[in-house]
Model the fold of this input.
Amino acid sequence: MKDKIRELLGKLGGLPVAVDTLADGADLYAAGLSSFASVQLMLGIEDAFDIEFPDHLLNRKSFASIDAIAETVSAIVEGREAA
Amino acid sequence: MNMMSEIRGAGLVERAREVAAVAAKHADAVDKEGRFPHEAVAAMKSARLFGIQVPILLGGEGATIAEIAEVCSIIAQECASSAMIFAMHHIKLSSCVSHGMGDEWHEAFMHRIVREQLLLGSATTEAGIGGNLRNSICAIEVDGDICRLTKEATVISYGKQADAILITSRSHKEAASTDQVMTVFLKDQYTLEQTHVWDTLGMRGTCSDGFLFKAEAPAVQILPKPFAEIAAESMLATCHLLWSATWYGIALNAVTRAQAFVRAAARANPGTTPPGALRLAEATAELHLIKSNVIAGIERFEAAKEDPAQLSSMGFAVAMNNVKIATSQMILSVINQAMIICGIAGYKNGTPYSVGRHLRDAHSAQLMISNERILSNTATMLTVHKLDTSLMG
Done:
C-alpha cells in the first residue's frame, strides 16, 4: 500500500524533493505539500483504493506523512470489510 | 442564543462603548487624513482591551472569541479602522494564546501584553508572494541562541505604531516555501524602512504601509509550533470571524443611519410611509442574515476549539471561508441600500446620514485575503469534502 501511496505522492504531490528521499514518517507539509496538492492526492488515493474519505478523516493529520495516509486508508478499508 | 448574555468580561461592553465614543469623535479625521487613530487606540489601552484574550492565569481576562467579536462590532459602528486594528491585534494574540502556552518566553510575553497593553502587528504579506500567507520567500536564520530575519513586507498594518510584530518566514534557509514559522519581534528588536505608502479607498486609518523589515532577537521568540498548524487551528478562523464581526458593525451603523433618515422623514410627514421605509425593511433582513452568519461561525469555532482534529478539518475550513465570503459580499449590498435610502444626504460627507466612509471601508472586505483566493481554496476542498446534510449541524 505504501508503494502505491508513494507513487501517487510522486505524481500528485508537487513536492520540491524526490519522494524517494522521504522516510515513511517524514512530515509531508514540511516537505512542501501544499493544500491544493494534498487534495489532489486525496482524490488520487480515493480513486486508486476505491474508497471515500469520510469528513472526520479529512484533516491535516490524516495526510501528514506516508505512514499517516496508510493508516487512514487502512482504517477505511478495514471498516468497509467489517461492515 | 443571545450572545450578549454570554459576554461575561467585567463590563466589557461598557468599556468597548467608551472606546467607540472616542473613536466616533475622530473617525472622519482619521479617514480624511489617512492617519492612525491614536485617540481610539489610547482609549483601548486605558480600557485595558488589548489583554482581554490572555488567559486569567497569565493576568488576562480569558475573553472568548464571542466577547472579542462583540467589542470589534461595537467599535466598528463608529470607526472601522480602529475596530480593524483591534481585530488584527487579537488575531495575532490568538496565535500566542493557542500555540504559545507552556512556552516560557511566550507566556511571559502574554503577561507583558496585559501589563503594558502592547499592540501587536502582523507581517504575513511579502513581495513576490502577495497575499498567499501560507508561503514565504524569506527564511529565518538561527545562529546559536539568536535568530535573524529580513523580509520585504509589502503590507504591515500599523507597522510604525505596533509595539511588537508577529512575522512569518520559512523555518530555515533550505525549507520549502510552505514550511513556515512565526516569530515575535519586539519594537526594539527590529528596524522598518518604509517602501510603500498606504493611501487607499478605505480603511485609511490602519496605516498598512509597506516596509523592509530587519530584525534580530533571541531564538526562543520563534513560536514553538509550525505556522501551518497555527494558521489552520487558530489564525484563519479567528481572522475570518473577527473581521466579519467588524464588517457587520460597519453595515449595522450604515443601516442605523438609514433608519434615522426614514424616521426623520416619517416625523416630517405624519400619516404617510416614507419612500425609504420598505427598502429599510429589506436592508434589515439582509443585516440579520449577516449577523446570523457571524454568530453561527463563532459558535462553530467555540465548539471545535478544544479539538485540534476538528479545527484542522476541511469541513471547518470550508465553514470559516464561507462566513468570510458571505459577510464580505453582503455588507456591500446592505450599505448600498442604506445609501439609496439616505439619498444625497447619505452620499455627502459630514451629514448625520453619511455612509460614504462605510461604503469605502467595506470595500476592503473582499480584498483582505482576496475572495478569489478563498473561493478557489474552497473549490479545491469541495472536490473531496462532502456538504453537511443536516440543518442543525
